[in-house]
Amino acid sequence: MGMAFNPGRQQRIAKAVLWSFTLITVFILFFIIFYILEKGLPVLSISFLTQNPQDMGKSGGIFSTIIGTIVLTVMAVLVAAPLGVGTAIFLTEYTVENRITRIIRFGSECLAGIPSIIFGLFGFILFVNTLGFGWSILSGSLTLAFMILPTIIRTSEEALRCVPNSLREVSHSLGGTKWQTVARVVLPSALPGIGTGIILGVGRSVGETAATIFTAGSVLRTPTSLFSSSRTMAVHFYILAREGISMPNAYGTAAILILSILVINFLAYYLMHKFMKRHS
Amino acid sequence: MTRLERSEKLIRLALLVIACSAVSVLIIITIFIFAQGTPILFKYGVKQFLFGQDWYPGEKSFGLLPMIIGSLYVTLGALVVGVPFGLACAITLTEFSSRRISRTIKPLIELLAGIPSVVYGFIGVVILVPFIRDTFGGPGLSVLSASVILGIMILPTIISISMDSIQALPRTYREGSIALGATRWQTVRLVLLPAARSGIIASIILGMGRAIGETMAVIMIAGNAAAIPRSILAPVRTLTSNIALEMGYASGEHRQALFATGVILFIIIMVLNTAANFTSRKKKR
Predict the structure, then answer these.
(1) Predicted local confidence at residue A1, as pLDDT
(2) What's the gap in Å between the CA of A132 and the closest CA on chain B?
(3) Which of A5, A25, A179 is best to mutate for the B interface (most B CBs within 10 A)?
(4) What is the pTM of this model?
(5) Which CATH architecture has domain A46-278?
(6) In the structure, what pLDDT confidence band is assigned to residue A4 with cuts at 50, 70 and 90?
(7) Cβ pair A111:B92 closer than 8 A
(8) Which one of A188, A248, B57, B187 is CB 3.0 to 4.6 Å from B254, fit for a cystine?
């Protein structure tokens, strides 16, 4: 047998290859984050955050796009969270596995796979055109809500399933009804896990471009009502970079985007960790 | 019936209605996209859309073949880049690293999924595109650059789903193989990977879905020429880019043709989703 067929040697080679691929992947991640922060952080200042964009974004800050992003995201979560958590409660607490649950789960999985540009097309034709909401916060947030719904359903369902059955049994034996058990025992216990799902939805909304640009529009003014068109940070960054309006401002906006994603992911991870600790 | 019982019944009913929301949304989306897209598909013939090579919406020429092939090329390219790296990460983190290391790296890879697609596109524009232009020639905005960026973007999908399916295997598989004197690598190659095959295939199919559906990153780095690319260094336009590039100003039949593009994209995605769902369900039986 030649050296090449020695299992020990083969394993050493395989391990080296696998580890180098893994390290390259981690390196790419750090590279993207550090590159954007290195170029973008020097641009940031209080006035960049608190001033409105001037001259299409060539100068001035990004205040109106921050407000646009926050309002759009909060609205989307306000719509999606009750629907998503409600669905998860129904699936875990109110039914056993049957045809209905399979259909619901399949629908949710399909929805999760639909590309954001399709959501954009759909939101444009339904909310902007047919219902006459125009390019607006309302159209944009409803579209985003539909997009993040599957994430919230899946994460909440997992969280609810992690709650030990003994808690439910104790509540029932004390005379608690189904809903009392869910509302006072199961939900509070699953809250950090559900929070993780909602925060992941927030993350997706903040970074989304294709679905928001055709529904919320790209007007640079600070939104004043649900029917104002509004530009999010991600859309602003896309327009700045693609049309070459201002590279420094593009980097600055990207840095804020990356920082928010870092905070959002850290929060989600922290909540998940806390949740897992409670239930293991 | 007491008041308590009645309210319990009402809550149950309300939750059932809410639980139908995801399915209803899916149905409404399907109806609206198809209602907008299919009339023009049939007016000019499905054949023209699927096999026509010329996209001149102003002159009523709606050939989507270059975009269909474009989507296919960048998706295959993304798999060529993403699958080896994704599987390597999944195997390393489940079989060849300590719990502590894999617990540190896993959330980092999930972070990769959280980075907005416009940021990936931007990194492609400022780093990858100039690099490809200077090293290999061509415009840089190309099938190759789109494939590499998409390959990175689908990594989290492939890694997390493959990891789940490898971790879900019974411990006896590993123990039996090691007890027979196999090395860890032989165990991975001969026992674990074949046993986790359906989950791994599902992860690859879902990764494909993500690559086909990605829009903004691709627009920024693919060059967007509506012609069938002759090499991997040539620019390319995907189905998603076709919609997003022209949606802003399209009207009338041009807009309908973009919805028809959406219909084709939608069908491809649904086929992939169903395939992924089917493979991963087969595993559970």
Answers:
(1) 45
(2) 15
(3) A25
(4) 0.93
(5) Orthogonal Bundle (1.10)
(6) low
(7) no
(8) B57
Q: What are the residue ranges spanned by the domains of chain A?
A: 3-43, 46-278
Report the alpha-carbon distance of residue B268 to residue B213 in Å, rounded. Answer: 10
**Can you list the residues of chain B whose pLDDT is less than 70?**
1, 282-285
Q: Predicted confidence band at A3 (pLDDT cuts at 50, 70, 90)?
A: low
DSSP-derived 3-state class of residue B63: coil
Count how many domains chain B has: 1
Nearest-by-Cβ selection for A83 from B18, B188, B220:
B18
In a domain, B18, yes or no: no
Q: For residue B73, what pLDDT is reported? A: 97
Neighbours of B195 (CB within 10 A): 17
Select from A19, A119, A200 the Cβ nearest to the Cβ of B96.
A19
B contacts of A33 (beta carbons < 8 Å): 115
Closest CA of chain A from B51, distance in Å: 22
CA-derived radius of gyration, chain B: 23
Q: B242: nearest CA in chain A?
A: A117
Contact B18 A86 (CB under 8 A): yes
CB contact under 8 A, A104 and B4: no
Predicted complex ipTM? 0.93
Tell me the pLDDT of chain A averaged across its residues: 92
Q: What is the pLDDT of residues B153-199, one digit of tens each?
A: 999 999 999 999 999 999 999 999 999 999 999 999 999 999 999 99
Q: Which residues of B touch A103 (CB under 8 A)?
A: 23
Of B92, B258, B269, the CB nearest to A19: B92
Closest CA to B273 of B212, B198, B205, B203: B205
In a domain, B17, yes or no: no
Note whether residue B3 is domain-resident: no
pLDDT of B278: 84
The secondary structure of residue A223, as a DSSP letter, is: P
